[in-house]
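Course exercise 7: structure representation. Students receive a sequence record and must write out the corresponding structure in token form. The form below is the worked example handed out in class, using Tigger transposable element-derived protein 1 (268 residues). Read each field label carefully; the graders check that inputs and outputs are placed in the correct fields and that the protein name is recorded exactly as given.

STUDENT ID: A-19
EXERCISE PROTEIN: Tigger transposable element-derived protein 1
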Amino acid sequence: MEDRFTLAICATVRGDCKIKPLLVYHSENPRAFKSHKIYNEKLKFFVEWINLVFGPSVKKYLQEKNLPVQALLILDNSPAHPPNLQDDILEEFKFIKVLYLPPNTTPIMQPMDQQGISNFKKLYTRHLFRRYIEVTDNTNLTLREFWKDHFNIAICLKIIDQAWLGVTTRTLTSAWKKLWPEAVAERIYEELEPGMSVEEEIVSLWKSMGLEVEERDVNELVEEHTQELTTEEIQELLSQQHTEVMQGIGFEESEEEVIYTSEIKEIL
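STUDENT ANSWER:
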């Protein structure tokens, strides 16, 4: 049942411009996309994302806001970020300057690592289990059967979109308080909406599925996936991609039909 991808998210300090995320998946031609034409090119994924997505989005945002066409892209020291990235940016986007954070500072300085990523993951989890309840309501489908037969990368992308849209400007702005506290102090946050927190809603959804969980289980689940992919893990994703192309296989499937609460961490 193991199936992995890596996702990069990015937004402005003000939180009012969310860039379309970059997703790298191990399959070039997922079965869920069999009705769509996919152009198979050997791309330098991150460089292409800069020139095709980040650059145009930021330029449009700056022009619409009547701001100087200047931008600073702050990155951590990831093996997925080429060291010569500045040289690979197209001429029309040379207004973008790339700055790498010092090594081993991502957990304490990288804005998205402060609140953005964890909030996104909680929203993703909430939408995922909402989807599960919608599909399995009034049926005898188990969580494992749902995961095997009613969930794929196409549905995953829709949930990613919903979760990313749900991350508030307040969350994105406050994530900069360690790296750029002055910018956070100048912002006026919107009031929090009354009602259940994301964690409380996830717990409620889980309990409706007959699972005995608490809010701390939600936080532990999110923490389980905070580590960035290593070079070896990225290579493993590419190796999986090559294997699927050569063997024509799809997702790995499991014959087990019973799932326990503890296995949720392995599924998500």
